[in-house]
Amino acid sequence: MTYFFETYGCEMNIAESAAVENLFISRGWSKAEKPELADVVIINTCSVRGSAENRIFGRLGYYSGVKKIRHKEPGAKTRFEEMQPAVKYVEEHGVVPFYVVLMGCMAERLLDSVKKDYPVIDFVVGTFGKYKFGDIITAIENHDKPFDIKEESEYTFPKISYEQEAFSTFVPIMHGCNNFCTYCIVPYVRGREVSRPAEQILAEIDYLSGRGVKEITLLGQNVNAYRCKDETAEGGELNFPKLLKKISRHLDETSSSIKWIRFESSNPNDFSDELIEMIAHDKHVCHGFHIAAQHGNSEILRRMNRKNTREEFIELVKKLRKAIPDVELITDLMVGFPGETEEQFEDILSFMEEIKFESAFMYYYNPREGTPAAKYPDQIPVEVKKARLQKVIDLQLKHTGQVMKSRLGKTIEVLADIVSRDDETELLGKTEQNERVAFKADKKLIGTFVTVRLESLSGNTFKGIMVE
After folding, report:
1. What is the dihedral of CA 243, 306, 373, 128, to 10 degrees?
2. What is the pTM assigned to this prediction?
């Protein structure tokens, strides 16, 4: 039997899709070439922005048409080109049940209503219901009728989130968020922070090392807020810096294949002096960090419930650059928060000029039903938000170019991971700072660390020469 995943949203969703895919594989299933040919399509959803949900609603409409074809229902529209794989499947195999599973944050948010609104869905799996996937697979294998899923009250971490044959992969270490930023739906669909026990994390790392993984990214909605009881730790508790130190030591003691450790996403409030000190003196933790700023005006940050000021974020950046001179920073920036004045918007631009991030995820405020900010007065007109966003994008493109040009001529270590789509004689790799580099090399070097001199730029990708 065959499956097909569509995954939207954050890295945590990617990791959770990989964990569920491993379960399918362990049961003897294989991945379908196209969703129209699968026995089951799993859509892992995102609720952070309305645009993400609207796209998923569109996909559900599409799969409603696919299911009508696969089940030979009256009114099935078979003339559309994208539907032809489903038509051909029925011609060759006859009627075989076609299942649709909705999982993830949007599934959690609309848990009680989405199946009624979209009957194409057979199973709705919320954030706390993924433990039921074994039963779902059994039901599909037996062509049973769908059943409702009762959620657990606590989040359960998957044992393994490994993406098959990957050299870089994700390791979830915590889940949920306690911050309740006024614009954000995450605490309502992911729940409160839960940290994963260190022994489970180390067990997954050992599994990954056994498969030749070279790099891991520790994941959490608020990853550096990690805190877990541990009898072996001083005071009986591990915080995030101590966990990093424990993992780094474990990699050395076990002669692990894993060389690099990354983590995301980071909240500036939890980027402590202890964490900076640990990273500065550790050989495994990479020097590129994603730290969400969101805005450059302290009053807007207060209304967002971000719990830090503009000045405190700038001070954090100064500490990082002093302790880790080759650090590069990526951030999130939001424009058009309710009540944002022109002067407050200009503070974003001056904030960017002062810090000069290497890259940024930039977007305008989009009200999310169920969050406090959606009810705030003084909502900004969309045309104003778009104009402000364009200014931020233009400035960030300028800064990205400046930062990347300043790195030309440097000789650095790169993890080669794939063949370039543009040139089969080139490999693509990534640096410690998570930048992309293209360089001429043999395919046999994929999955190894090589030394490359950065020679030029092609867009946001470095062009390099491998050196001995």
Report:
1. 10
2. 0.91
